[in-house]
Amino acid sequence: MIAAAVLAALAMGCVLAAKRLTAAKWTHRAPHIGILLWQAIGVAWGLATIGALLAFALEPYGKGVFYGMAAMVTAPEYGGVESPHDVARLTALVLGLALLAVLIAVPIVAAVQTLRARRRHRDLLALIAREDPSVPGVRVVDFPAAAAYCVPGLKSQVVISDGTLSLLSPGELDAVLAHEAAHVRERHDLVLLPFGALRRALPWSGLVRDAQASVELLVEMAADDRARQRCCPKRLASALLRFGTAAVPVPQGALGASAAESVMARVERLLRPQSALPPAQRFLLLAASVALAASAPALWFLPG
User: Fold this and answer.
1) Is residue 107 part of a domain?
2) Where is the secretion signal located (predicted)?
């Protein structure tokens, strides 16, 4: 029962950590580290929750989760005891395997749907978008409202509308394009995919909703940081304010230049930048993230 108890404690600890992290402000000073910590919490919570259920179910084998599952396949008599399986353990086994299947299947389904949506949108862009000498390498669509987004992938594209060209000054446009280029370069779509998939799997969970919103904001802030290395932060802030009142929703599978609910937090951050986290604190947070992500799979090998 030791493995089950430790994994259950780790799962609860991840839930508490997630609640604290949704309200944390230090992540705005180091969005990349905040994203990494969120990823570590997600991995640890999923594997710890599944592991706790399976460790309890497989406790009669006394071999932990990993080797216990192997033993169950080769010795289905449940540790040599030829009697009906304990209802609680059987329930835990079914729940653990079901949750494992869901957490594997949902991201795969979400990825397939996203890839199909992007392929359809690229086909559409091939018909309606054009090149513009003023913005080389960018696809321009004839649309009066402000729109700017990227379609990530092996054939990534940055797309803006005629409305964006009319709305933004040259400096603001450069800032927005730098922001979109950061999304493409750092593959932020892959960062967001598992959180969106988890939201689909657990649509009733307020904590999952808050976690997804937090990661989405950190991803935008991370792109802002890359963009302001190439352009004036004030230009990006003014572009965000313009987009906050004029932008339209982006297509499925794309990443937009701004989200209305996060605009003011990002503008405040750009206009009043805070000092970076001290190197020692950054190192501790990175080490904690790596240790947390590795802890759950390691505990799967802990003897029952």
Assistant:
1) no
2) 1-17
Tokens of residue 10, six digits: 């780790």
Q: Are residues 121 and 207 in the same domain?
A: yes
pLDDT tens for 259-295 read 556 788 888 888 888 888 889 999 999 999 999 999 9
111 in a structural domain: no
3-state SS record for the chain: CHHHHHHHHHHHHHHHHHHHHHHCCHHHCCHHHHHHHHHHHHHHHHHHHHHHHHHHHCHHHCCHHHHHHHHHHHCCCCCCCCCCCCHHHHHHHHHHHHHHHHHHHHHHHHHHHHHHHHHHHHHHHHHHCEECCCCCCCEEECCCCECEEEECCCCCEEEEEHHHHHHCCHHHHHHHHHHHHHHHHHCHHHHHHHHHHHHHHCCCCHHHHHHHHHHHHHHHHHHHHHHCCCCCHHHHHHHHHHHHHHECCCCCCCEECCCHHHHHHHHHHHHCCCCCCCHHHHHHHHHHHHHHHHHHHHHCCCCC
Q: Do residues 11 and 48 touch, judged by C-beta distance below 8 A?
A: yes
pLDDT category, 85, cuts 50, 70, 90? Answer: low
Q: Model confidence at 10, in pLDDT bands (50, 70, 90)?
A: very high
Global model pTM greater than 0.85: yes
Please give the average per-residue pLDDT across 204-211, as a whole number: 90
The parent domain of residue 12 ranges over 1-85+278-304
